[in-house]
Please model this.
Amino acid sequence: MTETPRNPMTLAEVEATARAAHEGQTDKSGRPYAEHLQAVAEGVRARGGDEQQIAAAWLHDAVEDDALSEQWLEEAALSPRTKNIVLAVTKRPGESPQAYAARILATPGALLVKEADLAHNADPTRLGRLADEPTRKRLTEKYARMRALLGLAQQ
Model:
């Protein structure tokens, strides 16, 4: 990755970009997807994350969801650390959970972003809106497995 640009995007600009990129996208319950991005960014902030991690939280699903391209990310006025975190938490097709977790653990700052993402994804209130009981059970188990692979305490 290149060095940090002279005029990096502000957090407000990153938030606006993420909201625009996910415009019209909803979660499984029909809520605006930006609510999830905001919850993850707030979760990172509450866990003591810095501005680069908060920026990555706003963008954490952008490449994975094809809302923004990897080329956009490469060229964006963001720090290399923010870019690396976004790429680290971007799941790749066919990738094993173990390989995904290893990449997150190997990328400075990424674990905190993924922890906030998992916390919001596994929130019982959110899961109650998103899915039927078998799906809630499957997702709860999936998130617990990822937390274990990342060495995070179970919620």
